[in-house]
Amino acid sequence: MSINRAIISGNLTRDPELRSTAGGLPVLGFGVAVNDRRKNQQTGEWEDYPNFIDCTMFGARAESLSRFLSKGTKVSIEGKLRWSQWERDGQKRSKIEVIVDELEFMSSRNDSSSSHGGGNAGGYSAPAAAPMAAPVVDASSSVYDEDIPF
Predict the structure, then answer these.
(1) What is the sign, positive or negative, of the torsion defined by CA atoms of 21, 29, 84, 59?
(2) Is 62 helix (H, G, I), strand (E, B) or coil?
(3) How confident is the model at residue 120 (pLDDT cuts 50, 70, 90)?
(4) Does residue 134 contact residue 100 with C-beta atoms inside 8 Å?
(5) Residue 17 DSSP SS3
(6) CA 114, CA 108: separation in Å to the nearest integer?
(7) Does the pLDDT at position 126 exceed 50?
(8) What is the residue-wise DSSP string for 68-128?
(9) How many other C-beta atoms are found inside a 10 Å radius of the C-beta of residue 4?
(10) Cβ(21)–Cβ(150) below 8 Å
(11) Which DSSP state fits 67?
(12) CA distance to 40, 44, 93, 108, 143, per residue, from 21 (Å)
């Protein structure tokens, strides 16, 4: 038996990119920065080292969330890891990404508007709700077989 679950929280490193497969399935791609703390052996000080994680979400939920996500948004994500490999300019490349099943907002899109007494000022300022589950995609479907460039 094997378990493939990943839980991360961090800030989006870029605005998400919404695309569609040839079959019309929405695909949302974004990056999340997650810090790792390590002790510097020379100075003895603790330092943050960022890890940059690519994330992908499929379906109608991905399309809906794309309007509320932007660079800097703090999120908590649960999903599974997927390894992919391709060749570009004769070089073999690979990456591990998180296929997002659930996403929870850890901060509002525009925190400063709620602290100044004004409404949402066009940003997302609702409190974090229950995790938002992505639609279940059958692993045997062609979504995983297609070459989706990111």
Answers:
(1) negative
(2) helix
(3) very low
(4) yes
(5) strand
(6) 9
(7) no
(8) T--TT-EEEEEEEEEEEEEEETTEEEEEEEEEEEEEEESS-TTHHHHHTT---TTS--PPP
(9) 9
(10) no
(11) T
(12) 44, 49, 21, 30, 8
* Joined tokens for residue 102: 């659930």
Of residues 10, 93, 25, 111, the one with CA closest to residue 55: 10
101 with 81: CB under 8 angstroms? no
Measured between its terminal Cα atoms, the distance across the chain in Å is: 31
Query: Given its phi and psi angles, is residue 90 left (phi above 0), alpha (psi -120 to 50 degrees) or beta?
Result: left
Q: pLDDT tens-digit profile of 9-46?
A: 999 999 999 999 999 999 999 999 999 999 999 999 99
Phi, psi of 117, rounded to the nearest 5 degrees:
80, -10
The pTM of the full predicted model, rounded to 2 decimals, is 0.69
Q: What is d(CA 134, CA 28) in angstroms, rounded to the nearest whole number?
A: 11
**Could you give the CA distance from residue 22 to residue 30 in angstroms, rounded to a whole number?**
20
Answer yes or no: are the C-beta atoms of 93 and 22 closer than 8 Å: no
pLDDT confidence bin for 136, thresholds 50/70/90: very low
Residue pair 12/28 in contact by the 8 Å Cβ criterion: no
